[in-house]
Amino acid sequence: MNLRKFNMCDFKMHSRKALSELVALVLIIIIVTVTIGIAMLWIVPTLNMMYDQARIESVRNFFNSLEYDVHTVILSG
Question: What pTM did the predictor assign?
Fold first, then answer.
């Protein structure tokens, strides 16, 4: 009878430890997920701005090359 009581106490101690480890794991997962989400909120707009800037620069270069071609045609023609 005493042995059974010891085993039950032992089980309760282990189950509390397992529960606390599970709670810690869930908290770590939540913290990591929130951190990644916040990082994405910062990274994605930055990448969009960089892409827009590169696209604007590309369009500007394209029109500058057209202007150069037109001047070349006018001067040579």
Answer: 0.51
